[in-house]
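re: that chain from earlier
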Amino acid sequence: MSQIVAAVGMTIVVVMLIFTYGRYLAVSSERRMLTMLDSIGLDPDIASNSELESIMSDVRKRCKSCTTEDVCERWLTCNEKRDNDFCPNSKVFEALKKYS
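^ sequence. v structure.
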């Protein structure tokens, strides 16, 4: 019986760790996205603009699945001296700058 309780307990811990890690990734992605908006001259409040909900939903999805997080972090802290063309949302951000 104690082995079953231990197994259930470990399963709960693993599920909680997976959930917590997923939440951490989502929060980090959102922070990077908002900081990127600010860094390129867009108001971060644009992310919650109801008129751009569909566009920003796509931006968030691309940001969450980004494979250049390390480059993004360095760029956002001014340790990368280049354009943000590494960002999968750079073209969308440029278009938003033109129309905002």
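The radius of gyration is 18 Å.
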